[in-house]
Amino acid sequence: MCAAVVGIHGIGQHKKTSSTLEESWRLAILRSVEPFNDAQQISTLKMAFYGNLFSRPNGRLGPMSEETPLSADEEIFIEDVLSSDILQGVDVDENSARELGLPAIPGKVARLLVRVDRLFGRNAGKYLLYILRQVYRYLTDKDLSKEIRNTVAATISPDTKIILAHSLGSVVAYDMAQRGELFPDSITSEMRRQIILFGSPLSWHTVLRMLGHGTEILDLQDVWHNLYDSADAVTGGQELKVGAVQNTKVRNGLRDPHAAIMYLRQPAMGSLLTSHAGK
Fold first, then answer.
1. The model's pTM
2. What kind and span of H or E run contains 197?
3. 139-149 burial string, b = 16+ CB within 10 Å, else e?
4. What pairs with residue 68 in β-bridges?
5. For residues 269 and 198, is the Cβ–Cβ distance under 8 A?
6. Which of 45-59, 101-115, 230-244 has the highest mean pLDDT?
7. Domains of the chain
8. Region for residue 245 given its phi and psi (left: phi exceeds 0; alpha: psi -120 to 50; beta: otherwise)
9. What would the 3-class secondary structure string for 169-198 be?
C-alpha cells in the first residue's frame, strides 16, 4: 500500500509556492529513503501551503524587520520562552548584548539572545527571535490560526498516512491534534496517521503552555515522532518531552541545522517514512 504524505511547512515561505516546496521536500525525501530501497512506498507528497498568509496587506504573520519593535506582550512571551533552564548559567555582558545589533530589542531580551548565540553560534539568537515572533502570532491571533488549520485540514485526505510538520508547522499539527482535527472519530486507533515533527519549537515549555491543551492525545504509542538536532536553536537543542513522542536525535551540520531539507534528508527520516508507509 502506498502512502500519501502531507507536509506542513514552517515560517518564511511567503515568497515560495506549494509546488516549489513540494518538489524540494520530495527530492529530499527520496534521498532519505534511498538506502531502504523502498521509494515506491512514498506515492505522493502534498504541501499544506499557508505561506500566502505571510504577504497579506494587513501584515498578519508577515515578514518583519529586525527594526520592528516588540510589543509588550511579545516581550513577555520571548522572555518567558528564553528563561528556560537550558540558557541558565551562560555568561553574558552588556557589551555583548549591544553588539547583537538589535536596536529595537529591549536589553533583557537582547541579553537572553546573546546567550542563545553563545550556545548555538553567531546570529542564532536573531533567527530564533524571528521564528518565536511568528509562533507568537499563531498562538495569539485566533482568526489566523483557524485559517491555517483549515488550510491544513483541506489538504489531508482519507488516504493520508503520514504528516510531516516542520518548525511552526509542528505547532499547527499539535494544535490540530488536540482539537480533534487530525484524527477524525471515524478513524480507529490502528489507522491513526503517523505524525513526524522536526525542528519543533514545542520543546520550549512556554509554547506548549500557551496552546492551552493537555497532552493526552500524545499518549498514543507509535504515532508521534520527533526529530531534533542539538545544534538547532529553534528546538533549544532539546527533545520533545511530551506524552509518548518518540524522539530521534540527528545531525544536520552547522550551516543551517534548522533547515527542513536537512531534516528530510536524514536516514532516520527515511526509516520512519518507509516503516510507516505501508501501514
1. 0.89
2. strand 194-198
3. beeeebbeebb
4. none
5. yes
6. 230-244
7. 3-56+141-277 (3.40.50), 72-140 (no CATH)
8. beta
9. HHHHHHHHHHCCCCCCCCCCHHHCCEEEEE
Residues 37-80 pLDDT 10s: 665 556 689 999 998 875 554 445 454 445 578 889 999 999 99
Distance CA 197, CA 182 (A): 14
At 66, the amino acid letter reads E
| 47 in Cβ contact with 17 (< 8 Å) | no
C-alpha cell at 229: 538536532
Bridge partner list, 229: 250
Query: What is the C-alpha separation between 168 and 134, in angstroms, rounded?
Result: 8
* Burial of 261 per CB tally in 10 Å (0-12, 13-18, 19+): middle
> Using alpha carbons only, what angle is made at residue 135 by residues 198 and 252, rounded to the nearest 5 degrees?
25
| Residue 9 identity (one-letter amino acid) | H
The CA distances from residue 211 to 10, 166, 173, 205, in Å, are: 17, 17, 12, 10
